[in-house]
Design a protein that fits this description.
The chain is 25% helix and 27% strand. Residues 302-316 have low confidence and may be disordered. It has 316 residues and is an alpha/beta fold. It folds into two domains: 2-233, Rossmann fold, CATH 3.40.50; 242-301, Ribosomal Protein L9, domain 1, CATH 3.40.5.100. It has helices at residues 2-14, 69-78, 91-108, 145-155, 175-178, 181-185, 194-203, 275-281; strands spanning 59-63, 83-88, 113-117, 130-136, 156-169, 192-193, 207-220, 223-233, 242-243, 247-250, 256-258, 264-266, 270-272, 290-292, 300-301. It has eight helices and 15 strands. Strands 1, 2, 3, 4, 5, 6, 7 and 8 form an eight-stranded mixed sheet that branches.
């Protein structure tokens, strides 16, 4: 399948294939520095870069970067104090991206962007080196999605986020349809159902799953497909799980919520929490839903078999 995908996108880098993409929502002020020609070779199913709340100075990684459109947008947003890396496995796409990169850098007046050849199942970056991961209609093309998600978690810093636009299916794809190289390479039969997509991300250690957008994509061989954009977060993890007398109060409106670590918060009732959970609840996507009390006493380690945060479960 990897060979089939490379063949498909090598051809698409030479001659545009409009059927490989759908309308993507880029605000005009963020794409004026990009050569217009590049958009004829842009393939995706969403606009994760415009929905990821990227901030100036952040380190951004784009998986399956193609000719670099999302990278070029991110480069302008993060500015000269930030850094953007695009990873793609197709030489023809990388060659186009590099040509556009020099023109983009000249227009912006700074060069904070690089492209690297590599597979998204083995990302060529160090551990905990990026703040934001973007992925636009690429993960469905991978034959080993658990490896992709594990690598994403590895290179993200604690509290970092992945914003993913990808194709999802209405149910599991049968093996005989997965074996169709044309359907797989066209972003159909490599898709997962939403439940399977979230389960795989959770198995890799992500939390805080948030749907940002969804729209119909099409129907093939009896399946319905949609374009889904979601955010997922890598948990904060300090050197130790510490209790410092902090608590969190869930503000409502629901009577009770439970986070991905198993902590239960009843509306307006304080819950003792550890340092990692305190950091997590003060950051997206939880920020604004909780009031976290400040530190009030010296730290006491509660790591180990007893778990943390009055839940009886570990923080991992």
């Amino acid at each position: 399948m990897r060979t089939a995908v490379q063949r498909t996108y090598a051809a698409a880098a030479t001659r545009p294939r409009p059927n490989l993409c759908c309308a993507q929502d880029y605000q005009s002020e963020w794409i004026a520095h990009i050569p217009a020609e590049a958009f004829t070779f842009n393939y995706g199913c969403g606009s994760p870069v415009m929905k990821s709340a990227i901030r100036e100075g952040e380190q951004v990684l784009d998986l399956g970067s193609g000719v670099g459109i999302d990278c070029f947008v991110a480069a302008k947003i993060v500015g000269p104090s930030g850094r953007v890396t695009g990873v793609d496995m197709t030489d023809e796409m990388l060659e186009r991206a590099e040509g556009y990169r020099t023109r983009v850098a000249a227009t912006l007046g700074f060069d904070n962007l690089e492209f690297r050849k590599g597979f998204i199942e083995s990302i060529p970056l160090p551990d905990a080196s990026v703040d934001v991961i973007l992925s636009n209609c690429v993960i469905n093309l991978s034959p080993n999605k658990p490896e992709v998600f594990a690598e994403m978690r590895r290179v993200l810093r604690g509290g970092g986020r992945a914003v993913i636009s990808d194709i999802v299916s209405d149910r599991e794809i049968l093996p005989e349809h997965q074996a169709d190289e044309d359907l797989w390479g066209s972003c159909y039969t490599g898709a997962l159902p939403v439940r399977g997509f979230i389960a795989a991300l959770r198995e890799a250690g992500f939390i805080g799953f948030t749907r940002i957008a969804e729209s119909p994509w099409g129907e093939k061989v009896g399946y319905r497909f949609a374009s889904l954009t979601l955010a997922a977060y890598k948990p904060f993890k300090g050197d130790q799980c510490l209790y410092q007398g902090q608590s969190a109060v869930y503000l409502g409106p629901y009577a009770m919520v439970e986070d991905d670590a198993g902590h239960r918060f009843h509306r307006l009732q304080p819950v003792d929490i550890c340092t990692d959970t305190a950091a997590q609840l003060a950051a997206p996507p939880y920020a604004g839903h909780f009031v976290v009390t400040p530190l009030v006493q010296p730290a006491v380690s509660i790591s180990g078999s007893a778990g943390c945060c009055s839940t009886g479960r570990g923080c991992d």
